[in-house]
Structures are given as C-alpha cells and as structure tokens.
C-alpha cells in the first residue's frame, strides 16, 4: 500500500476517534480531499472505504430492512467492490 494512502487512512482513524475538535477535522478532511488529485490513490481509497462499509454491514445488520432486503443491499455493495477491484487491476 502506498505510504501516502497509509497516511490518509491514519487520518481517518484519527477523525473517527476525535473528541470534537472541528478545526483539526477540517484540516484532516482537506488532506483526504487531496486524494481526488491522483487517480490510483483515490481508487484504492474508495475501494478501502467500500470494503469497510461491507464489513460493517456484515457485522451490524440494519434492522430497518427485512432479511431479503438486507441481502439485496449487501449484494449491491459486493458487486460494487468487485467492479472497483476489476478497474484497479
């Protein structure tokens, strides 16, 4: 994984654990936005986020949906991840 991508992932972890320091968050979010400048890092970053969403969906089912609907949502995310991975290769 590129060093720059690791730095941004660490920034996200910091934001998640932040106790509400908004000015720090703005600075961190600005650095994350810089991912949009280069295609390859932004693709890897988006893929990472999509995988984290899928992991969250897998471990924390949403009770607003019945089982069939929830499986359909998970299938969409799975398909999106597969397409993203194919695009990166």
Describe the model.
- Helix 1 (3-17) packs antiparallel against helix 2 (22-33) and helix 3 runs antiparallel to helix 4.
- It is built from four helices and no strands.
- The model has no long low-confidence stretch (mean pLDDT 78).
- With 89 residues, it is mainly alpha-helical.
- It has helices at residues 3-17, 22-33, 39-59, 67-88.
Architecture blueprint of SSEs:
Layout: H1 3-17, H2 22-33, H3 39-59, H4 67-88
Shape call? flat
Q: Identify low-pLDDT runs.
A: none
Helix content: over 70%
What would you report as the Rg, rounded to the nearest angstrom?
15 Å
Main β-sheet description: none
Return the average pLDDT rounded to an integer.
Answer: 78
H/E element sequence = HHHH
What count of helical segments does DSSP give?
A: 4
Instruction: Work out the number of β strands.
Output: 0
End-to-end CA span: 14 Å
Q: Which class best fits the helix and strand makeup? A: mainly alpha
Beta content comes to under 5%
């Amino acid at each position: 994984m590129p060093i720059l991508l690791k730095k941004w992932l660490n920034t996200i972890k910091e934001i998640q654990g932040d106790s509400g320091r908004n000015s720090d968050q703005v600075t961190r979010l600005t650095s994350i936005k810089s991912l949009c400048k280069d295609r390859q890092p932004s693709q890897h970053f988006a893929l990472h986020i999509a995988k984290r969403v899928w992991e969250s969906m897998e471990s924390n089912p949403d009770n607003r949906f019945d089982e069939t609907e929830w499986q359909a949502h998970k299938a969409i995310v799975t398909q999106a991840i597969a397409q993203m991975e194919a695009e990166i290769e």
